[in-house]
Amino acid sequence: MNLKTRSFPYPQFESASIYVHFVVALNSLIIIPLAAYILPDTQLSPSLIGYLISGKSIFALATSYLVRQKRAHDLALMKFFLLLLSVLTFLFTRATSFEIMFVYQSLMGCCCGAISVMNFNDVVSRSKVDDRKKKIGSLLSCYPLSLAIGVSPLIFIAGNYGWRVSLQLLAMLTLLGLVSVFFRQVPASVEFSEPPATTPMIQPVSWFDFVLCCSTIFMCVFSTFLFSVQLPTFLLTQLHIPSYLLSISYVIGGLGCFITVRRYTKKQNTFLPIRNILLASVAVSVLAVLVFCSQQVYVAAASFILFVLISASRTLVVKTDILHQASEGLRTLMVGTQGGVQYVAMALAGSSSSLILASGNDGLNYSLLAEIGVATSLFVPILCVVLRCRYNKKPSDG
Asked: For this UniProt entry, which segments traverse the membrane (predicted)?
């Protein structure tokens, strides 16, 4: 039976969706590198930054679940969340205590969770089978792209004019996203008949498959953020790396990841290439430890660049493959929950990193953080192997 679906008739509609996703990704990630500027200005402990990430992620999970059936063309709802996100981002710059910052970050998480899920659902539902992997990759690539062309300029501004000015600029960028939604017209749907779909690699939904896919995505994100929540602060406060060098690191790492994922989604690659994922997991562990152990600024910066590139690429490849290759029933479940899984992983990683750092008797316990981070990172390829074994069709590994 031929299936009916909808595609983007106009490029500008898709471009608006990508911009909205870019703004949400930027808002989700920016608090991590800006923490090194926020903490000394507000006299907060470095161990508290993880709780800001956790609060934002937990509330993002809650709203992503509530709006999981809604789509981006619910324009009134999209306008509300984008406007609220812009206002909250500005109000955060006026906060002076950790409690108020936590409240604002949590409410911003509500907005980010709702917008990202609605936008993602709409893009996937309007994609042809042949274009779905590319469209999924495009949205997921907004995260490394935001690191490259979003986070880096904001870090530079924070280093020269203060973190408050940096976030006020982000509030303005969010308003531009509101404008793109406000003025765009949702194009009429175009119906077409898809050719008979090839046998999906993940067969009809079972709860084991669902839990396994969620666990794999969770561990990718968790193992990455366990390190990445603390690495920028470590570089700026412990190694005293210049802010421009951290910005350059995000530019190179983010663009490298963006190019890698774009190239990956244009080819029919092996599903979850285990060898590559294993090598990436080992590299992520080694590079993070090298940052923590190195006393040379440029060695640490180079290691951080490669960490950003490889860890983000690993996560996006895993998520793209799962969402692209899943059967229709499993994909429907995963599209509505993958955002929540990511936010839970970010929340737990943020809280865990703060608790681990605070566990040291003398100072911050970076050595224990490195040990636990390595263990979680190396668990990712194990989950990928188990997921591959659930597939009826097992292509040769690439």
From this structure: 16-36, 48-67, 76-96, 102-124, 136-159, 165-186, 207-229, 241-261, 273-292, 298-318, 339-360, 366-387
| Residue 335 confidence class, pLDDT cut points 50, 70, 90 | low
**Total tally of structural domains belonging to the chain:** 1
325 within a domain of the structure (yes/no): yes
Does the pLDDT of residue 132 top 80, yes or no?
Answer: no
394 domain-assigned? no
Would you say residue 109 lies in a domain?
yes
Domain at 331, CATH number: 1.20.1250.20
SS3 per residue for the chain: CCCEEECCCCHHHHHHHHHHHHHHHHHHHCHHHHHHHHHHHHCCCHHHHHHHHHHHHHHHHHHHHHCCCCCCCCHHHHHHHHHHHHHHHHHHCCCCCHHHHHHHHHHHHHHHHHHHHHHHHHHHHCCCHHHHHHHHHHHHCHHHHHHHHHHHHHHHHHHHHCHHHHHHHHHHHHHHHHHHHHHCCCCCCCEEECCCCCCCCECCCCHHHHHHHHHHHHHHHHHHHHHHCCHHHHHHHCCCCCHHHHHHHHHHHHHHHHHHHHHHHCCCCCCCCHHHHHHHHHHHHHHHHHHHHCCCHHHHHHHHHHHHHHHHHHHHHHHHHHHHHECHHHHHHHHHHHHHHHHHHHHHHHHHHHHHHHCCCCCCCHHHHHHHHHHHHHHHHHHHHHHHHCCCCCCCCC
